[in-house]
Amino acid sequence: MSSELLKLAVLLAAFSLFVSACDRGSSEAPEWTEVEVTILKSLWLESLPDLPDDPSNAVANNAIAAEFGRKLFFDVRLSANGGVSCATCHQVARRFTDGLKKARALGLSDRNTPSIVGSQYSPWQYWDGRRDSQWAQALAPLENAHEHGTNRTQVVDIVFGDADYRMTYEALFGPLQDTAGSDEVELNTAFANIGKSIAAFERTIMPTTSRFDEYVAALVRGGAQREILSADEIAGLRLFINEANCTQCHNGPLLTNHEFHNTGVLNFPGDVPDKARAGGVREVFGSEFNCRSIYSDDSTGFCPELDFARSGIELIGATKTPSLRNLEHTAPFMHKGQLSSIADVLDHYNKAPDAMIGHNEAEPLGLNVTELHQLEAFLATLAAPVSELGVEL
Amino acid sequence: MISRRAVLYYQLISLFAVLFSGDVSAHGGVVEEDDLCVIKVNYLRAHFKVYQPSTLGHEQYCEDLPMATESVFVMEYLHDSLSEMPIDFRIIRNVTGKGRFARMEDIDLIDDIDSATVFYRAPVVEPDIYLVNYQFAEEGDFIGIVSARHPATGKVYAAVFPFEVGFTGLGYWPFFIGMLMLIQFQYLLMSGRLKRWLGKEVAVATCVILGLLLSPVSFAENLVVTYTTPDGDPEINKMHDWIVHIENDDGLKVEGAIVDVEGGMPKHNHGLPTKPLITAELGNGDYKLEGMRFHMSGYWEIVVSITTDNGSSKVMIPLQL
Fold first, then answer.
1. Do A359 and A322 have their domain in common?
2. Considering only alpha carbons, which residue of chain B is nearest residue A265?
3. Residue range A187-204, pLDDT digits in tens
4. Are A347 and A361 part of one and the same domain?
5. A103: number of Cβ within 10 Å
6. Which of B50, B56, B58, B81 to mutate to probe the A interface, most A CBs <10 Å?
7. pTM score
8. Does the CB of A151 have a partner CB in chain B at under 8 Å?
């Protein structure tokens, strides 16, 4: 009889231990290790360094240029049909994306519209990094038949013919000539200056503090971080920086390493698989407006990104890691919008299938449904408005 | 329960491949090498794979394609100079009358290749990798023709690979049946019954003929995989064990092998719901496989990969549940 009682007591003790362990897991503050706190701080928006210099753009930090660039950005006259501006695809309300799988302006583009937010921190623009500055990037869509469908002469003519634009341009860059009397270098210089003004505006577009950032702030400064994120969101964050391997690529305060990775996403129906960076690196070397070009304002010719750029077949199918901030309005995802929701993206990484071309760098994660939901919950905590010159848009 | 017969068929597929791949490669074609599909354009080689991504996801095919649907052909160059050579890609309906055995000579005999052509991509220099996306409108027998022009010599190299889209015809079956009859014949011969029926001379002659027929192929490298299910036939959604038995065709039991088992439903493009593992070697060529489960009825394929000191091989066990 007494042994029966003993058994019961042991069982009860074990059960109460189990219950308290469960309770602890669900409601008590998670203990982050020192290493984890370091990682969390590295992802924190407050860790974002000051705007990097862009010596190739003399007006990069010029407020007049930024305002001029802002007008150009929204100006539909800079298009073949008078209906397309940069904001056609880079819509403010959608965090500078367009909600489409592939960008559509005058025609259908090859890829998904990437956000502008945070792109001033990236050495490479586009999914394939085929431009090496924001200003060089800004010029390309103007002359793309599927996008603005115009050309550099027409663009410079519009600025020349608009009294306000011309006055601003000349205040920034000196006299603007009629394109009829310009040689190639003069025309390209004027065209490049227009791109540099657009870039000056784009540089002012920044992410703002998200709930995740508030959580880290509370963690670092000693605050009530428990109330900021839910247990699921915290569990998702824990997975994000640990088992889910997300921070292998999505690291730093912009949640991107600005690098190129093949993650084995299927081709877009009807398209051949995208060679992506393998082609992009070739193109940036040949770009007439790259860092080494005469249109760069940096006379030192110091172009470390180009000098040390990796190329070759290992970059086949590798696309640039996008930021994970502001995912709330940027679906569909991946370089051709192949995946329509974050759940789909997480499922893709959980399986990590073989790539059609090149090699998928990701390994299957083997996360369960609950863990995937937790990751999804965490990613939603990165939602926040974006700002222009510190003013929320 | 034991699909010895099916295993035999798959041996015959390998036999078929060995018999004919040498011939094809000499003229330029698609062959399998160490699990990789390789296209040989004369001395120029590239990994070759085909996807039907919109219907079959990341599933990879070597030549024959299950469906008439969007098909992405991928050539990953194994020879740098392919990056600099203009390459063209043509798909024609197989009007050669040679079926699987069509070669460049047969293509050259086609009077009007354009009318047989369903897809043509003009020569283009494609750095890094060559890609084609073609939407097959119908099932049937086709021939792919890849040509590359050497930039210095101007010489054109070509690879020809007949393939089937959809399961339109008898495929390999007539060949299997022929081989089975031969094997049965050989059995009768060995067992002495044939000798009693026909007399010695004919039997010797048959032996020689069979020997000639079979001599290019050695079964020595072929492994025979069978399995038993100690707890009765597999039930849907029930985890169970297998005993996997491996021997070579001399009946020698394979011991000390590293055995890996994967499986899935090719038509559904999914794998097993579990990750079964070999948990014990039981001796006598037997291996205990735990964690098998099928979560739906239909056609499954279980692939057993076996690595021994003699190399690696895979045996596929088809299974209808």
1. yes
2. B58
3. 999 999 999 999 999 999
4. yes
5. 23
6. B58
7. 0.71
8. no
